Every structure is written in structure tokens, then in C-alpha cells.
């Protein structure tokens, strides 16, 4: 199995394709599988790295709460261990938040950034009623089934992971929009028009990053990366070609 020993324990990861390094950062209570189709398509033109964070996918959970700081540190440790000095970053949801922090705080490590369905703080979420239209019960069930199939901790640990994520999402992230003005990497901000993150909030992210592009996908919810992978990949590839 492709595990890499990192400071917080063995991390499952995959590497595919050749070209400039590109790292995929998955969302909360998900895994590389949520980005599988995008992963395979991008591997046709890039060296795609797909690490899975502690408590997600095939990587065992670690003691203590989740934090976005820990996600950034995990990503940096992964890139260091793989000898990757700089990479294109494509992040989804929690992974997109980590990507924003990487681009802001470690600009020398980020070639370009694609931020999909990120929020800057908990106020960015839509109302509970609107959120029910962002992800279907079938999508929730699919994520839980994937956790049961992949996690070395077993399905019995799923509720512990969910509880840690809920606690995280109550209080984090806390990213002041003006702080994103220091991001120098070419950036594409994406979300669905039925996303769990409010459209206005997504627009603030794009406006806060100098020169950032904004793409709102019609008819798509929070799991747009799984709902319409061909469109997402086409938009990402068009953006990445423009960064060369």
C-alpha cells in the first residue's frame, strides 16, 4: 500500500502522471475518491499527488482535534517528504481552505491555486434550510459508505470523525478577507450556485485575491467536484494553461 511516514503518522497517498507537480486536497469526511475523476483527468498533464489527511480515507485518525493549521502543516510535510518544492494546489472544501492558507502564508510553495467551495469563516455557510439542497441524502450516504470501506479505523469511528469536524466548522476558519490581498499565486475560485457556501461569500474570496478568477457552476451543490467532474476539469485545465 502507498503509505508515506509523516510526523503525524503514516499517510496514504497516490502519485500519477508526469509534468509539473499538482497536489489535490480533499474535503472533510471525504477522501481522494471524491476527487477521483478530476485526479485521473489532471494526471494526463501533471504529476498529480493525492495525500489523504489523518482521519480521512485510508489514513488513520490521530489524537486531538482537527484544525486548518494542522492541515497546512500536513500538506507541507507531505510536499517536503516527496521532494516537491512548489506545486499547483487544487483544494476542495476543507482542502480549499488549507489551500488558501498555503497560498497566503507559504507563497513560495504554491505555483497556482484552485479553491473549490471554500469559506473564510463560519458565517460563510448558507442557512440550514438552504444547506439541505446543497447535498442530497444519497451523497451523504455515499461518503459514509466510502468511509466504512476505506478507513483503517472502521465504521465505528465515523461518528468520532464527524464530531471533530463539526467542532472545527463551528469555530474555524478565521481568515480575514483583507489578508488574502497578499496572495501572489494565480488563483481560480469555484463553487456551485447551490453550494453550502453562500455565493456572496465566494465572491468576496475571489475579490480579495489580486487577479483571481471566479467560476460559479450552475445547478451544482457542494459536491460539484463529483457532480460534474468533466466541467470542473475543463475549467481547471483552461485556468492552468493560462498560468504557463
Automatic annotation (TrEMBL):
Domain AB hydrolase-1, residue spans: 21-123
Superkingdom field: Bacteria
The keyword Hydrolase belongs to this UniProt entry's keyword annotation: yes
Single Gene Ontology MF annotation: hydrolase activity
Pfam families noted in UniProt: Abhydrolase_1 (PF00561)
InterPro entries associated with the record: AB_hydrolase, AB_hydrolase_1, AB_hydrolase_fold
Presence of keyword Hydrolase: yes
Keywords, alphabetical: Hydrolase
Name this protein carries in UniProt: Alpha/beta hydrolase
